[in-house]
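User: Structure please.
Assistant: Input sequence and predicted structure:
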Amino acid sequence: MKKMFLLVTLLGLAAALSAKAADAKDTWTSNCAKCHGAEGKGDTKVGAKLGVKDFTDAKVQGDIKDEDAIKAIKEGIKDADGKTKMKAFVTGADSPLSDDEVKALVAYVRGLKK
């Protein structure tokens, strides 16, 4: 009986993780791919203009801390002149992304590394 409970629990956890990964991919596609590209290479017209980083590059990934990525998603990114380079995707009560969705998105970005 214990083995059956453990198996059911593990299958449920695997399904939940799979659903989060699918949600993160959808979030990426609808909110990030326009600039960062479908594969995260930054090889879009807008990405080239803004100088976005290639998230498939292991060195680029190594230089980015998860907390910095979370902050960028939540607060956006501005250049030295204060001009918005990336809009914030979490804006408080009307936030389009929850904290869990932001963390799942960061995990998705980590998975883009080749």
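The longest strand covers residues 84-86.
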